[in-house]
Here is the input.
Amino acid sequence: MQRIYLDYNASTPIAPQVAEVMHRMTGEAFGNPSSNHWAGRPARAAVETARGQVATLLGCSPEEIVFTSGGSEANNFALKGLFFAKPREHAHIITTQVEHPAIVEPCRFLERLGARITWLPVDASGRVDPEDLRRAITAETLLVSVMHANNEVGTIQPIAECAAIAREHGVPFHTDAAQSVGKIPTRVDDLGVDLLTLAGHKFYGPKGVGALYARAGTALEPLIHGAAHESGRRAGTESALLAAALGEASTLAGDLAPMQAVKTLRDRLRDALSAELGAQVVFHGHPECILPNTLNVSFLGATGAEVLAGLEGVAASTGSACHSGRVELSPVLHAMGVRPETGQGAVRFSLGRETTAAEVDAVLRRIARASWRRARTPVWAAP
Here is the structure.
């Protein structure tokens, strides 16, 4: 059975160009980047070259890039760094109901320390209304964090509009762009953000490396204390290997032309499912403001686990989990108002630059002959 990977939102393979850089770095620049001798200087040069490559991707100054261990650390650094840099008795943070756990859990942690969190609602497409943000901001608001694009349904948020509202009130604005880098434009000045998170393994780099963009003048208390690495913003000896890999991945991500072909294949999959199954499928996410590679679809009358079990060899993700015979919706689908009988059948197909038309057609054939379709006479539910 041919194995087909359609889970690129979870993780991407390392691009050959990135792997080549990593291989080269294992034999070169092995010194400590902080050492001012012949072994350390090449490592420092590699780190700073990579910092410039990430900055070029985001359209910012290299000095505004802090290397991290990944997207989760960058998100934690943004939220906790601002909270501890500007301690307030009634600190207020605004975020949304559809954020990744790497935002949700730090917010809950800060809530235990006295912060007040406002969770903005979303509409049925998973999109925030900027006017809800305008109404939520107060004189005590410390930070607004709204993800750029949702990892489950692909909906793209109106970041520029939301950031403009925050700027009017003098409030820093953060966006988790882990899912959008390499898929849609992520220039920080166009978005108007003060802080932006990216994660290497989401755009053909390795796991274990990411970065936080922090606009010049944004005060952040370090998340990791120690020596003065990363200009005093993150202690710990930098990995020249991982930094160089992220830099090369950032250079590749700057070319968005391949995503048009990915979008064409995503639409081919969506249109074929719609034509074949009609009212038996429900698509989630915004019809236009959506990542070009993401398709979240509910197969009515089945659970996501049953659908994937019938797609032998296909790697994809479900939008629900089964606990003791009870199906539990993801928080994202719940926030969008998706009914449990609909959302239990949700599957996320996320395509990548290596996805082929033959793979998409093979998935469609497997869906057509899946046993769960023959075994049930479902009562179709509207979303």
Remarks:
- Confidence is low (pLDDT under 50) at residues 375-383.
